[in-house]
Write a structure and sequence with these properties.
globular; 9 helices; six-stranded parallel beta sheet; 274 residues; six-stranded mixed beta sheet; Rossmann fold
């Protein structure tokens, strides 16, 4: 029961009504018996002073989603190494009068690939997208020992910027502008684009495996199409779960009940979105 002493956290995004984070986190809070609630809030197209305003209202912290992961950098007083390196924040917590920024998307990608037994070391990876999710995916692949990471994006300049970072992280890299139809030849193809690949008929993935960081009930068209062809796929729901596991511990100071969170996502999606 919510009372005057109930603490709150939230996911901030625009739009955010589709988010499954409240389902996942509130199930975990209920299971652990913690006096807290997790909400989904849309501050409008600009993040502005929303973080500090909500903290003054008593919020413990936030998950940050599209389109605020880069804008949130200016809302914090301290960054963890991953967030600083990626210039991207997806968790903010309020501790001892200061706002701390974290990136748990890297962990989400790492754990998702590990759980699916997808090997990255020594492999060629192609990433569609150059935003915050793409940077997290690229960094996770570099940490896992990827041989080469190719970046494809609508904006070639942004693709080149990410390619430069990848080279600094120790992998061969190149960048190119997105052209249709997209020909994918890689050991691992990662969709980190908000385009969502609803245009999957324009994608020819000749890939050993696919990670789609977008999630939707019943799975995305990309995942369904690739699975029909026998290509191992990981859905964005897995990334959502594992980044949420680390975020839960940061926000609420307790180990996340992974199975409870997974079951909550199963119920919310009908169990067919993994």
């Amino acid at each position: 029961m919510i009372s005057a002493s109930t603490r709150a956290a939230a996911v901030l995004g625009h739009p955010v009504r589709h988010s499954l984070s409240p389902v996942m986190h509130n199930s975990a809070l209920s299971y652990l018996g913690l006096d807290a609630v997790y909400l989904a809030l849309d501050p409008g197209p600009c993040l502005g002073d929303s973080v500090r305003t909500l903290v003054r209202c008593g919020f413990l912290g936030f998950n940050i989603t599209i389109p605020f992961k880069e804008a949130a950098l200016t809302s914090v007083d301290w960054l963890d190494p991953a967030a600083r390196m990626l210039h991207c924040v997806n968790v903010i917590r309020y501790v001892d009068g200061a706002l701390e920024g974290y990136n748990t998307d890297v962990y989400g990608v790492q754990q998702s690939l590990k759980e699916a037994d997808i090997e990255v070391g020594g492999r060629r990876v192609l990433i569609l997208g150059a935003g915050g999710a793409a940077r997290a995916a690229a960094y996770a692949c570099c940490k896992a020992g990827a041989r080469q990471v190719v970046v494809v994006n609508r904006n070639r300049h942004r693709a080149e910027q990410l390619s430069g970072l990848i080279a600094d992280w120790g992998a061969e890299s190149s960048a190119c502008a997105l052209k249709w139809p997209l020909q994918v030849e890689a050991d691992l193809f990662i969709n980190a684009s908000t385009l969502g690949l609803t245009f999957h008929q324009d994608v020819s993935p000749h890939a050993g495996a696919v990670l789609d960081m977008v999630y939707s009930p019943g799975n995305t068209q990309l995942v369904r199409s690739c699975r029909k062809r026998g290509i191992p796929c990981v859905s964005g729901l897995s990334v959502l779960l594992w980044q949420g596991v680390e975020a839960f511990s940061l926000l609420f100071g307790a180990p996340a009940p992974v199975d409870v969170m997974r079951q909550a996502l199963d119920r919310a999606t009908g169990g067919d979105a993994w």
